[in-house]
Amino acid sequence: MQGKFLTIEGTEGVGKTTNIEFIKGWLEAKGISYVNTREPGGTPLAEGIRQLLLEPRDEIVCSETELLLMFAGRAQHLDQVIEPQLTAGNWVLCDRFTDATYAYQGAGRKMGFDLISNLESMIQGDLRPDLTLILDIPVEQGLQRAGERSEPDRFEQEQTEFFKRVREAYHNIAEQYPERCVLIDASVSLPLVQAQIGDALDNFWSLLEECR
Amino acid sequence: MQGKFLTIEGTEGVGKTTNIEFIKGWLEAKGISYVNTREPGGTPLAEGIRQLLLEPRDEIVCSETELLLMFAGRAQHLDQVIEPQLTAGNWVLCDRFTDATYAYQGAGRKMGFDLISNLESMIQGDLRPDLTLILDIPVEQGLQRAGERSEPDRFEQEQTEFFKRVREAYHNIAEQYPERCVLIDASVSLPLVQAQIGDALDNFWSLLEECR
Questions:
Q1: Mind telling me how many Å the CA of B168 is from chain A's nearest CA?
Q2: How does pLDDT run across A129-163, given as a tens digit for each residue?
Q3: Strands, E assignment, chain A
Q4: Residue A119 near residue A84, CB atoms below 8 Å
Q5: Which residues in B lie closer than 8 A to residue A122 (C-beta atoms)?
Q6: What is the per-residue pLDDT across B179-195, written as a single tens digit (0 to 9) for each?
Q7: pTM value?
Q8: If we measure between CA atoms, which residue out of B212, B13, B2, B15 comes closest to residue B133?
Q9: What is the ipTM of this complex?
């Protein structure tokens, strides 16, 4: 049976890394075989593309270039990792996917959604995540957390207004695709965040059991 | 006045580098201010993309990834170099452009032309070269010349059949766009090749003079 495709989304400092560990624990407790991967990245070539995308540079990076690099890495990741793993029956747990492109490039960079939607169809056909957990936090709170962590990458150097547009786009995605998206309040304490994630995963699992 | 956009195309070992020097001499003799650039590449970021594209790697590079990387670099090159230079009235002499994408990815990799045509419209709008010199040589003769030169890159490692499809695609492009393309027989001696290139440039110049 085809594996399931889980994605985690959210703005800077929302706690994706910590919560991915929690999700891995849930998958392991269920005895599900899975791969944990990320975008941009997930293969040696796609990680090379990630590096080009993230490293701060003097050169102005035009929005179309950024968008095409995102989808170039995604095409490779799908072809070499995501699709073969799902076909082999393994689950795929991916840190960011195309929802991030709509949020960051579409809303953050104000590119709009038509070009992204065209590229999504070109590259993904009708493949979409089965479950998307969108970790949500007020922008200032997230940036403060991210700022304590490390030197900012090219995206983290953006201004607050950029991240507000990104957050709003994630809210819209959660509303538009309620069948696969769960918005998680990540502004509360870690145990309370993980209780919400645990519920979302358990609900997803129950639905799968019902369909069997 | 807007500068003119010249592109040079051709398969491996066709003598692009040598003949670009000849074209630069012609431009300088006419007192034309120009930039000489190349694809993939032409800006620091686009040169990073070029490196990802050309270096031989164990990982299979899927055709869509290759195509999107080509256009990602092109978007950056257009935005940062080609369009501002043309607008400033300088000519742009570019070693390969979108015709190479039709030939190598469309025909060589058998991706077809629809996806490329969509990306071309997305990224270039209606910008096309004003003059394209397609240097043409039998595949075996070109590969022999290229082989004597250096270690093969990821494209040069392809088989003869691949390059035959590329060459045929260039012939088709020359037929389809006679108003901007000139097919140059590059299998003959260098002075004879350069006589053809000189004629093509002089004709182009005469047409420009007539339009003034």
A1: 26
A2: 999 999 999 999 998 888 777 778 888 788 899 99
A3: 5-10, 34-38, 91-95, 131-136, 181-185
A4: no
A5: 64, 115, 118
A6: 999 999 999 999 999 99
A7: 0.94
A8: B15
A9: 0.93
